[in-house]
Amino acid sequence: MTLTPKTLLRVSVAVALVTIVLKGLAGYMTHSMGLISDAMESFVNLASAMFALAMVTIAERPADDDHPYGHHKAEYFSSGFEGILIVGAAVAILWVSVQRLLSPQPLEQLGWGLALSVISSGFNAALAVVLFRAARTHRSIALEADGRHLMTDVWTSAAVVIGIIGVHFSGWLWLDPLLAIGVALNIVREGVKLVWRSSQGLMDEALDADTLATVRATLDAFAARQPEGSRLRFDDMVTRGAGQRRFADLHMHVPGEWTLQHAAALRDALELSLMDAVPGLRVTIQLLPLTMEARATRIVEEQAHP
């Protein structure tokens, strides 16, 4: 059974609450700045999962008069918001870690603290794997962002655990806050990547290379299937992505002697072929005679060669 994005994000909220409790207890018991910083990031997990759930709910709304192309871009706000929260959490961790670096404190009850941290990381790792798979299935940047954040949390926890073990055997108390600073810098990197990814989506970035290759291969195959003498030409294709929805606009040039009914029927067949080849694609095809270029194309050529 395939879980919906909303169901998965509700699970993410529940897991975030569990990890907050487990990591919070681990930090309280050990007085480890590394574990405390790890617990602070779990609050970001909770906030980002709740916001992602809200944005995915909006993205599922059908198109209306004010939003004729739908609400799919709402997911990019989720990714950007999550990136901003991650950076904010990193700044807080850096501030507290520097204070602890100046005044190191001994660690306590490491056994229980490390056990709780490992258990919570196990929950995050399992959920991240599920979110990555669902993100590919649903083409959801909100699920992908949540999964990436959780996986960052897993690696962060692993580094913290290794560092605390190092403190235990070496007695270097400064190693714990220093490790927390490293954790914060890694969190900043992930946050910046998420903000950049969401900004590109909001700016109508073109479809990825693999999808474009599929579209072009479908066009070539469609033209090759036509009877001999039925010349077709495709050009001026522009594409963009908006959350789960993908859009493509192009011109289809046909012999000028064809009837409009015949050309339109062929265009409808091509649209169906493209939508079958690329799930979630909404394609708009403008019909033109083989001997005519669109006015927009002529303007671009005139600007390029004045």
Please provide a written account of the structure.
- With 306 residues, the protein is mainly alpha-helical.
- The protein has two domains: 5-202, Up-down Bundle (Alpha-lytic protease prodomain-like); 209-304, 2-Layer Sandwich (Alpha-Beta Plaits).
- The chain has helices spanning 5-30, 33-59, 74-102, 110-138, 141-170, 175-202, 209-224, 260-277, 295-304, and strands at 233-242, 245-254, 281-289.
- A three-stranded mixed beta sheet has the order 1-2-3, with helices on one face.
- Strand 1 (233-242) and strand 2 (245-254) form a beta hairpin.
- Helix 2 (33-59) runs antiparallel to helix 3 (74-102) and helix 3 runs parallel beside helix 5 (141-170).
- The chain is elongated and about 85 Å long.
- The termini are far apart.
- The model is unreliable at 298-305 (pLDDT under 50).
